[in-house]
Amino acid sequence: MTTSVRSLTMRFALRAAAAAKLEDGWLYLPCDKNPSLDSACLLVVSDSDDDPQAIASEHGFPSEGLDTPTIEDTVNAARQFQDSPSDELMLESFIYYWRFDAWLPEPGAPEPPPWEEAKLKWDREFFDSLGAERPTEPCHAEGCPRGAIHHSVLCWIHHFEMIRKEPCPFLE
Ligand SMILES: [Zn+2]
Question: For residue 129, how far is its CA from the centre of ligand 1 (angstroms)?
């Protein structure tokens, strides 16, 4: 049972991940600002129950980055745009996932506005809470072929639109 830490730069971590040579661990960053390729970071490699976050904070790297499998996935996401992605593109892909929990849609993609992210998440949670449509109870909205959900005379979409008073962004 051991825990060890490695000091490295983002550039080194990304290149190692691209070569499938980054040790399995959690990468921590010095702060919540976007890292650059030359930013120092810390890889905590542990096969014990030690809390990697506490260890990283002790070493001056309080901001949780990503774990090794996820870093490899962000490199693979960058490979959709370049066979051998540049350091810059790998960094962009890493940062996009780190900040937005989403794969980089395209190189140079603008950041989603924060309110849009938050609102979409809130809408989604509401939508997911609506429960199943009943095939035997047609939705009362005119011409709608869907079934009404429980506790409503409307289907998912029309119930959502009645409550939120705007078009439902989910399903067609
Ligand atoms: Zn409907």
Answer: 16
